[in-house]
Each structure stands twice: as C-alpha cells, then as structure tokens.
Amino acid sequence: MGPGPMLPVLSLLVWLLHLSALCQDPYLLGVARLQEGSYEAARNHFEQVLATDGENPEGLLKMAETYYQANDYRDAIVYLERLEKAREGMGCYLLAKTYAQLGDAAMAALLLEKHLRSGYKLPSGTILLDEAFVSIENSPEWKSLWRNDWYSEDEVLFQEISYLTNSGDYLDALDLIDQALEGAADRASLLTARGTVFHHMGNYQNSIQAYTAAIDLSRMNPESFYGRAQSFMALGKFKDAIPDLKRTMQLQPEKLELLKELGEAHRAAGNFDQAAEVIEEYTEYFPEQAEAHYIHGQILFESGKYLKALSCFNHCLELETNDPRFYAARGETYLATSTYRYALNDFGMALDLDPKNHEVWFQKGMARWYSNDREGSIADWERAARYGSEKAAKKLDELAVRQ
C-alpha cells in the first residue's frame, strides 16, 4: 500500500504477450510448479524462459527462488548475481535472505541496505517479521543497519494506515487518511487505502466509491481494481466485478489464483461458458488440484453438461478420495441423469465421511424415491429434517397431507 516501487510488470507483460500465441507459457507454468513446491519441474520451465532470453529478470528471480526454497543457497546466489547485473536492485532482498540463511550477517546486512536504497524496497514490517533474518537479528551489523531511517514520511504514513486497518482500528485509519488527503501524499494510494478500510468495515458502497476515485487517478495499481472487484462481489454485483478481475490479472499475471476467482465470478453471473473456459485454463496450470476440477465440474453441472461434469468429478476422486463433497457432487450428477444406483452409492460414500450433511441425506432420499423405494426415501428425509433440511421437512409434510 502507498508509494512504493513500480512493479516489474511491463517487462513481464511484454514477455507474456510474446508467448500469447502458445497454449501455455513456460513462465506461468514455472510459477505454478513453484507454488506447488515442485522445484525441479519449475526449473525446467524457467530454463525455457532463459533459453529464449538469458537475462530475463523475472525468469532469473524465479529460478533463484526454486533453489532458495529448496535450501540450495549457493545455486540461488548464482542466479541472483546474474539478476543484479541484468536489473540492479531487483534481487537484493532475496540475496540478503540467502546470505542470512548461510549465517553471513555482514553480507546479508550489506545487501539489505542496498535493497532499502532501491526502488524495490519492502515495508519495514515485512522485513522485520521475515523469519529468514532471525539468525542474524542479534548481530552488530543488523542492529547498526536499523539505526538509520530508511523510510520517508509518506512511507511511514502508509505503513501506519496498513497497521491500523489490519488491527481493526478502522476509524483511526480513516482519520489518518483524511488528514493525509489534505497534504501532498499520493492521493491514489490514499483513496485505495480508504477503499480497503471501508471494505473491511462491510461498507461496500463507500468502498467502491473510494476505489473508483483511486482508479480515476491511476490505472496501474492492481490493489484498487482487485479491491473494487471484491466489494462488487460482496454486493452480489458479479458482472461489475469481472472487468476489474481481468484488469488485476493484466497487472499481476503471476497471481494464477485470480483465474479461479474470475471463473467463480462468471459462474455467479450466469456466464457458464466463460466460467468453464477460465477454470479449465486454471486446471491446465494446476492439473493435480482437485478443488479446481471440483469447481469446473460444478460449473458444467449448473450449465446442464452432465457427462462433462461427471468427468471432472471422477478426476477429483482420482486425486482425493476422502472429500465428501466430491462424492456428493458426482452423486447429484448421477441423480440428474437418472442413474439412481450409482447416485445412491456416491451419496452413501459422502455420508460415511460426513454423516450429518442434511443436503446429502435429502438427495439420497430423492434417489430412493425415484428408485421406487418409498420407505427408504422417507427414512432419509426424516434424517435430513433432523439435521436441519427445510426441503426434507416440506417433503414429509406433503406426504403426510397426501396420506
């Protein structure tokens, strides 16, 4: 939040646009594997990036991260030193962390000072709470480093606003923002901060107004677009949220989770084809993530594409056999296709894992009803009603009237 380094977005966007004709670009595939902790697979993808552009800053940084996360600090340093030659200052923070992990307090402090003088400077709270530096916090080099004031008044201001917001001191945060707006601080960032405070307060209309005012001043801050999207969705205005999520993705292409959020927004807006397309793209980056296939299956089910939905739920259960939602979803799909025997089997599996789920008891009762098992369906609906299902209670009332 607040004035800070210009994110290295433009060069990354140029790289991604260069690869837009391909099905999937290696950089984002590498990011996905890095997020999963599959470091060797991630390196294979980043090597493709560097084979095309050996000094690609983002590729060098991510390659270094794969080694850092694997505790291979010497190899991380090799790539970070290359990065410093290609983009001075961009790798200093990770270099500082790497030397801290190696126990070299003097070098870590020297590199952290370089980071604090760079355009990539992180907030003090982020640095001071970083566990990578725990081993050198009592060193004279570390203590000497923090005797200096590294942050401007505006930077301190935004850190204080962030602290108050995260602490739930919303009125104090708003007072501080209002005072700052009378001065020369970054108005776009202040308005974004105001939008964030209002969003946390549940005042979504005022939040949207603040974010919109910030966006009118600057269209390069992803926090403004993402925050406004979140407020739109909180109000159920999913169609309004979609353009903001797309803009956030343009500014932060590495945040692949945004694909999942965009898919959910399309789904809530009733744009099932677009939702399925977006979620399918997400699953291409994370093929082993059962939750993503589950969302994809739900979207297909809601759009009436039952056979494709079954394929998704089958894949979920290949990846994860202990989640009752996957059995319930497949059972509901079998129910929709009049395949009652399979539906009953899946509902039974779901209830073995989650025996008090009233919706599954209700659906199981429906499958029994359509299988001409009247007594069984009534027993299931009685269980569902006992666990809180109003639909089941209504069914039982209807049967009682008929009797």
Largest sheet, strands/sense/barrel? none
Number of helices: 24
User: What's the overall average pLDDT, rounded?
Assistant: 93
- The helix/strand series, from N terminus to C terminus, equals HHHHHHHHHHHHHHHHHHHHHHHH
* Separation, N- and C-terminal Cα atoms: 65 Å
Structural class: mainly alpha
Radius of gyration: 26 Å
Proportion of residues in β-strands:
under 5%
- CATH 2nd-level architecture of the domain at 260-402: Alpha Horseshoe
**Share in helix:** over 70%
Find the CATH superfamily of the domain at 260-402.
Tetratricopeptide repeat domain
Task: Count all strands and give the number.
Answer: 0
The CATH topology of the domain at 260-402 corresponds to: Serine Threonine Protein Phosphatase 5, Tetratricopeptide repeat
CATH class of the domain at 260-402: Mainly Alpha
Residue ranges: pLDDT <50 for 5 or more in a row? 1-22
Name the quaternary structure. Answer: single chain
Shape: globular
Explained architecture:
By secondary structure, the chain is mainly alpha-helical. Among the domains are: 152-254, Alpha Horseshoe (Serine Threonine Protein Phosphatase 5, Tetratricopeptide repeat); 260-402, Alpha Horseshoe (Serine Threonine Protein Phosphatase 5, Tetratricopeptide repeat). Helix content is 73%, strand content 0%. It has 24 helices and no strands. Helix 2 packs antiparallel against helix 3, helix 12 packs parallel to helix 14 (222-234) and helix 20 (324-336) packs parallel to helix 22 (358-370). The longest helix has 15 residues, at 187-201. The protein is globular. The termini are far apart. Residues 1-22 have low confidence and may be disordered.
